[in-house]
Amino acid sequence: MRKIVSLLVLSILLLAGCSRTAEVSAPVKDYVSSTEGLKRVKKLENDSVREVYLVQEAQDLPASMLLIVETEGYNGLITLLVLIDYEHESLTEVSILEHNETDNYGAYAAEDWFLARFQAKDANTDLRLVKIIAQQPEEIVAVTGATVTSQAIVDGVNAAFKVFRDFKEGQ
Amino acid sequence: MKKRFFVVFAMLLLLLLAACSGNKGTPDSDPGLQPGDDGEEIVITGKDLEEKVITVAEIRQLDSVTRDVVSVDSGGNEDKYQVKGALFADVLELIGKKQQDLNGIRLIAGDGYMIEVPQEILAAREIILAYEIDGKPLEDKTKPIRVVIPEERAMYWIRNLVKVEILEAREQQSLTKLFLLESAVSALETQDYTYYDAVDQAIICSDLSLPAAETVYLKSTDDFEKNEKFEVFAQGYLKISGAEAPAFVAPDLPKGMHVKDILYLTSEDVGYFSVTKGLEYFTSASFDDITGIAVSDLLNEVAMAAGSKYLFTATDGYSVEIEAADLEKGVIYVNNDEVTVAFEGLPKNTRVKGLLSIEVLGAGTVEAGVDEATVDWSITVEGIGENTVAFTSADAAKLSMRQVTAVLSKKDGTQETQNWEGVSLKDVLDMLGATDYQSVIVEAADGYAQEYSLELIGREETILGLKLAGQPLDENNGPVQAVPTGEPGNMWIKNVAKLIVK
């Protein structure tokens, strides 16, 4: 029942904001197939979470929250795109939009195999960086030789999770 | 009113002038200090050396050098820089040391990264303590100093240098026991180890049966060699499966300290050898339907001690003793995932499946007929004082024996790695009292000669070789052969008969 109410609220919010596609940034436009059903929620944004959107369920996407997050890496800011499944409250995808990490070290953290470690993580639990092997669902194993970059991505995803949780609690 | 205005104006002018002259005074009081240098320093330590703290400001006051340099990392990637800094040799002078005289140094960065710079690099290379790169001060992560060693790999170019340890001379020790890694780890507890996109298997290094020593020596299949502090090694992992295995890895160590594709590692007189890597590294040996690694190649490579017999032991405890003379007949291979050794022409019961270790029996003894103690020799030495003197086998016995792994470059372009024992040419000259010389001509019994430069003589690896692969030299090459490690074959002089000091 709670989920139905949540989705209903999301739909109402999206309907109310359909005309605001002009506020959608270029990376987000590139990511979604259409800006139809996309609503930016500026009141949720902060210094780290630069953009927050609610995404209506479409053919290729579940109803989601999409966030653009900036996090401090080893060689400057890393910009992440984080997509959280609204209904299942889990991370659908994290991808890296921009970074300046060094090829032999931090850049490995932008590889698909590392980012895949975040998939389906529960958005209600902060992630924790570990070394060698993950023993708990919320643990992410750092890339060999790129601990600072790995931690930055974990921090960025946790910042996105917090915004998501705050939004849901406010419903 | 006008007068008051001029008084106020004059006072302001005086204050400004005073402030300006104060600024001019700062560089005079400490000309080396640059913005951001405050508190920046490196520490130099060593046995029998009082810890010396040197500030970046002091380093800046030394003569500066500017060099265009290219760093090359292990992946072959090149980066070009212009660096400015002081020479490490000049810093050493402050504490009464000479770079060329050091046996080695360990560079330590603020993040724990450390690497040894061996004597041959210290003898031949300029080491720059850089405080500017491309005309700009170092970034915070690189401060206080970045080490730059032109012509050497980037692994030595450490950022964030905080400490330099001056190392003592280290005698290379022959092995008395060698474990075959694949068999040895089968009895150890393994654990999952996430390595990039894979989850591989690893053991804890402290589980290996290595005697505690100052350092552990590691050699990779690409001939990369490294000495790692024993306590650092013991806290790491040996990744035994997956990409780049065997690899020394540790989650808390900088990636640059990892060693991949390890051929073997040793501590004191015990080693571990990877048969899997050895099969890639050595030219294969075979007999009947068996193809693998020649036992003699393996034992030469790891500098196994000479002995009268060798004990080959399996993981199940089965063991056989093999005469030293029969080692040439042995081949180590992998059969049904088991490391196995077999000897051509010897009974079948000498075949050992699940080979765990090879151990020297009677180390230091040599079979009758090759007893080197009975072979006396003498080399004529000219150019020290007015009279000709002799350097004899009895003199050599008083000097410390050095073991070197030398690569002999042959005329046909091929290379051969050899394990030599002998005495340092420089030790010989020191013993004979040679002090003021620029070169030495090394002459063979047949009159063939080559001139060795001061730099070549100064290398620790330039020896008068007395044993090859643990055995005295035969009459074609010995009893003494000059071995200038790293030099082409025409510089290696067999049957050394005379040294002319110039």
- Cα-atom Rg of chain A, whole angstroms? 16 Å
Structural class of chain A: alpha+beta
Kindly, what is the distance between the CA atoms of the first and last residues of chain B, rounded to a whole number of angstroms?
A: 90 Å
Strand order of the largest sheet of chain B: 15-14-18-19-11-27-22-23
Biggest β-sheet description of chain A? 5 strands, antiparallel
Main interface: chain pair and counts = A-B, 18 and 19 residues
Kindly state the mean pLDDT of chain A as a whole number? 87
Percent strand of chain B: 35-45%
Outline of chain B: flat
Quickly give the structural class of chain B: alpha+beta
Low-confidence stretches of chain A: 17-22
How many strands of chain A?
Answer: 7
Strand order of the largest sheet of chain A: 1-2-3-4-5
Description:
With 171 residues, chain A is an alpha+beta fold. The longest helix of chain A is centred in the last third of the chain and has 23 residues. Helices cover 29% and strands 26% of the residues of chain A. Chain A has one domain. Chain A has four helices and seven strands. In chain A, strands 1-2-3-4-5 form a five-stranded antiparallel beta sheet. In chain A, strands 6-7 form a two-stranded parallel sheet. About 4% of the residues of chain A have low confidence. Chain B has 502 residues and is an alpha+beta fold. In chain B, strands 15-14-18-19-11-27-22-23 form an eight-stranded mixed beta sheet. In chain B, a hairpin with a 2-residue loop joins strand 18 and strand 19. In chain B, 37% of the residues are buried. The chains are: A alpha+beta (171), B alpha+beta (502). At the A-B interface, loops of A face strand 12 of B.
